[in-house]
Amino acid sequence: MWRIISCSNHSILDLRSSPARGEGPRLCVGVMEALWVEVLFATKESDGLLLYNGRFNEKHDFIAMEIINEQIQLTFSAGETQTTVSPFVLGGLSDGQWHTVDVHYYNKPVLNQAGLPQGPSDQKVVVVTVDECDSSVALRFGHMIGNYSCSAQGSQSGSKKSLDLTGPLLLGGVPKLPEDFPVRNQQFVGCMKNLRIDNQHIDMAGFIANNGTLAGCSAKRHFCSTSPCLNGGTCVNLWGSFSCDCPLGFGGPSCERVMVSPQRFLGNSLLQWANLAAASVPWHVELMFRTRQSSSTLLHISSGLQHNLTLQLRGGSVLMGLHRGEDSTLSRVEEVVVNDGAWHHLQLDIGSLGGAASLHKAVLSVDHGLYLASMEVDGKLRDSKLKTVSVGGLARPDGRIQHGFRGCVQGLRVGGALSLSQARKVNVEAGCSVPDPCGSNRCPPNSYCSDDWDSFSCTCLSGFYGNNCTDACSLNPCEHESTCSRKPTSSRGYSCDCPGSYFGHYCEKKTDLPCPRGWWGHKTCGPCSCQTENGFDSDCNKTSGACRCKDNHYRPDGGDSCLLCDCYPVGSFSRACDRVGGQCRCKAGVIGRQCDRCDNPFAEVSANGCEVIYDSCPQAIEASVWWPRTKFGLPAAAPCPRGTLGTAIRHCDEHKGWLPPDLFNCTSFSFSQLKVLSETFFRNASLLDSGHVQQTAAMLANATVHADRFYGSDVKTAYRLAQSLLQHESSQQGFNLTATQDVHFTENLVRVGSRILSADTRQHWELIQHTEGGTAVLLRHYEEYANTLAQNMRKTYLSPFTIVTPNIVISVDRLKKMNFAGAKLPRYQSLRGPRPADLETAVTLPDSVFQPPVDTRGHRHLDVFPESSLRNRSAGRKRRNPDDSQPDAIASVIIFHSLAALLPESYDPDKRSLRVPKRPVINTPVVSITVHDNDELLQHALDKPITVQFRLVTTEERSKPICVFWNHSILAGHGGWSAKGCEVVFRNSSHISCQCYHMTSFAVLMDVSRRENGEILPIKVLTWSTAGVTLGFLLLTSVFLLGLRAMQCNKTSIINNGATALFLSELIFILGINQADNPFVCTVIAILLHFFYLCSFSWLFLEGLHVYRMISELRDINYGPMRFYYLIGWGVPAFITGLAVGLDPEGYGNPDFCWLSLYDTLIWSFAGPIAMVMSMNVFLYVLSSRASCSLRHRSMEKKEARVSGLKTAGGVLFLVSVTCFLALLSVNSDMIMFHYLFAGFNCVQGPFVFFFRIVFNKDARKAMKFCCSGKRPDHMIKSKSSGYNCSTNYMDGRLYHVPFGDSSVSLNGTMQSGKSQQSYVPFVLRDDGLSTSQAHIALNDHASLFHETKEHLDDHDSDSDSDLSLEDDQSGSYASTHSSDSEDEEGPVPPEECWENLASSVAKRPHDNSVNKMYWPADYAAALSDSEHAAGDRLRTESLTNQESIHGRETRPPLDDATTVLLPSLPHFNSHHPHRGILKKKQLSPIVERNGLNRIHNELSESSPGAASPRGSSSSDGRAGPTKPDRLNGLALSIKAGTVDGDSSGSDSHCFTSM
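Now predict its structure.
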């Protein structure tokens, strides 16, 4: 940059070549010559003189450049007339910014008939251009496109054909001129620089006279370099100062003050305070505002003495007025315009001037004192009392706001801060948010909109001009028939393609004699300065001298060299490529920059394009290697890329094509000799001596530092050599160390490690570590070498040192043990050479590091040390006498910045010491620290921990930090990360501090997640609320099921147990899922969650099984012991959970949450049983539905039988399964969607169970009615009556079941029974044709349908447990299988007598022979058709009664409409064919049923028609036995047939099974 001159007043800059002569150079414009003048300036003044050249009278030529009303104006004269040229720039040029003015003067030539110039004409032209304006567009098309007049042209005619500027060139001012001189300004206040005349820089320090100019431009220095803005403010350089663009709510020169209560005013808004405290001098009023409004009332204060103080905006300026009655005083700040949308600070202070007159002065400050205005005010303000303070306008009596303010105000103070709660508010909005003015696409196409706060501005893109952003090429500013083309990289957005003999921006210049190759310029040629070694052509542009690339080269955007196109000749049309992108012109189907690839992996580039190869992988290029065509399944071998040795391998796959190439065996030229040395030393380490070590280290450092790229063999060679060198040096002592002989040896080793441990070698290390130790071994060797140096530092007189490389920093330092107060290492502040980029990662040693504990037994941190450290602890302590200790200790610190990502992902298998996160990553450098005291490594337990401070590598998506160290002794000596003895003590967004009680290599393990510890439930309020809803409803369900005695049965118990298990699992989940800080508690919670969730699904399975049994089995299974159910419901989950805990107890809980992880194999102990339960339940539901449909065809009802509770059970299973699955996903995933889904389903789960189990269940409502009324339901009354007042329902040791499926027929009475086999009646009663008739079936002693010999009384079923262990059945009736979900409300059924007594009474009565026969379903329907009566409303079973009194009861007349059927005794079907296990409950086969029917008919035909004897009949097999007189030998059934409109539930002893 050229020297800058600051000119003020009569500043003169006289540029003359011979100062002694006293006259300046004569600047004459000769024939056909042109004058170019260019200068940069900056000013805040609206008027000034920039340049004057000529004499100081009106008779000679001159040229003057001025600023008039913030616009450039050029005046020139050739001695006859004066011409003024003035371009116009919107907004003006007096804004304190740098602006460029370009003046071009020339004489138009006289052209002959051939169009050739013959000399200058008398017409002189001046073109003035401002700020990189496109002069051709502005001059030729500015009037057409509008708003583009940044360039102006003026001409002057006269007899003189040249401009004679004989006189000094003056900058910034002129001496005293005549009054009528055509120059309006004689001075300039501002800065100038970069003065150029005829494209040559003028040294502005070469003046011969100076009047007050100063070097430099203090008003334009970089004030923001010190970052003065606080609280997030943005610094903006201004003229002579800076401004802080403060965020909302802050203000002050540096955004240091809090501006309270920002408010937005809409033009009809008002804030008003009344009855404020008395104001005393000095007054103080302060506020900040921003607006686009030019005129309004900002603040109005009225006092008791008719004083009114007003702050107004008038014409964009601030106006202060004080009015008292008709008198008023005004003061205006005119230097600044405040309606620019920026925040401005106003402060008004009224204070006493002193003296006897008691005068006061009001001072108005704008923008913290940059602009001031003052005036004298009345001294009576001292005792005035404020009445009102109005902000934003004046309130008129009609409520309207006068002179309303539109903008924002904050930080209002009148003496002190005003409270908004006491103000009257009218249309005031909190904050300062305005609509986006660019949201409605107000700008024309080819432009972008700028949000200027409550305003907008449109800026045309490059190459578009005017109000409508017209394309310049559509106007065609190019001359001489040249072509305009769009070119975004050009400064003007377009370029003119000139014909052969023309050049220039617009092709306006013609080349007469062009410069030769390698030269450029017009009239005068100069050499091109193009670097051909970088791919540039030796020839350059003839106009600008710009260099261009050679043929078949391209220059990337922003690059400083040209690259070879290198187009593949087979796949491209030519060797040329795009000049910028380098893209070659490819043939059809060929892709790639060099046209060397096909988009099909099985296609090959050929002369005709891409051709598919069907039996091989095609010839292709990858990794700079051409791979030959290769058959499927075979590997291909090719020479390594250029500059390397070896063979590269690539496999050809039949399905995927070419697999990624393997270049691991490639060796760079610089590593070829080192590879031989590596193999030699690897075979025989004894060849290493001091000379070989020094030479090898130097060669290795040179090869690694200068390598641009590492191949796998390079890294392996360097690793083996570094390992050999470090291992050799670690075994040396004293002056045998090579570091004592070669000062660069240690530095070379560190630089080698830094290069091969860089992040770009990770893929090579992964392959190396498959067969060798790799980075973990290298870490141990560097630690051992540093220990060796520290141990021998005193013996060898080595000095402390710190070596800084990009990836490794090693520091070995001395510590003064006397009064040791701790130390922070490395000591970055004392470094003299290069400093690392990370200066925060360091180790702080405690003051007690050299003081071992007196008694280490029971030390709380002794167990955290590696075994190798513990073995040598005591030995090191006894080594020498304490009096022989040295005054200094040696500490070594190594910081590996890139090692963490290269180490194997190995972790301590003891999960109690390290709970590895789900996606673990080491997010800090690895810091190794050791301390040597008395030449021995300190290995004792530390009383105070060391503190390691880390700077995080990545701050985004990293959470749950764990301080870890690399333990070389675990995992069979391979090493891994462990966390014993370390803890996190500090953390912020970029740093973490750890404290550890031992010294080794430390780092911080983190999880790739945004979720921190304790944030397992990010929407905690919603999750807790939904869980509370579910827990409440589940608790209500359990209370209702336990409290309603009328619903007590096996199915109710199953549902209650399932609800209890689900309640406990939900409760434990919501209370303990985030207790991950305590590992033991977390493990217990995870185990309990596993157990109770399995119990929930187990009871859901039992519910489905129970429903199926109720439908498929003929006996009533709703009563009886539930030992089998409890064994499955609670025992099986306990067994599975116990087995899982025994196999993997550490799999329960993790650092994130206290449950099972989806990424652990233990999850299958949870998911497997649940999947099995779901599949078995679906299978059971299908079987139940089919069984129900099958029973419907054998039912006596016409209405379809409903499946008992299947829909509700299926719905509960679905909700519980989905909720459990979403709970697992929500805690195992970071997606917030899973948490919302879990909360939603969890909220539905509990209410669904309660409403469908209790509220919508009709039997539950009945039970609640009985509970509220104090009555017992019928089935409970009958069960009790039958159990105590009636004889047993056994007959000859036989329990009777009627196989009517789901019909409405049941046996009244529920009696206790022992184990027995069952007789089945192989027929089905149907209600076809039955309306009101009743059928009575009586079984007497001689013709008993259900008859068993007495020898079966003591029989026991040996495999009754296979029938789910319901051996103590409480009912003699079969299970009711129809749903009560839709039962109609029924009144209580009157109690009936026990059917055994009634049957006995009937057996004593004589009966007519006509009724002593059996009706089958079809015959029975026909028989009843003749005696039908009015239809009843139910179908149920009654006991026939005798007409005489039974057990003291009165006789009961027989029913008139009853048809009595007497059945003879039924032979024992199962005496020879017993049914055991599962088959004992099944229906008989058709053959057995047919044989049974024949025997029934035989016995019916042999039965006598006389009265039935109550005693003594023999059984069907001929064996007789004594019978008791009150023994029941017959059974009477009364079947009432009625309408079947309602749902039949004839069994009075059933459980409410519709839940």
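The radius of gyration is 53 Å.
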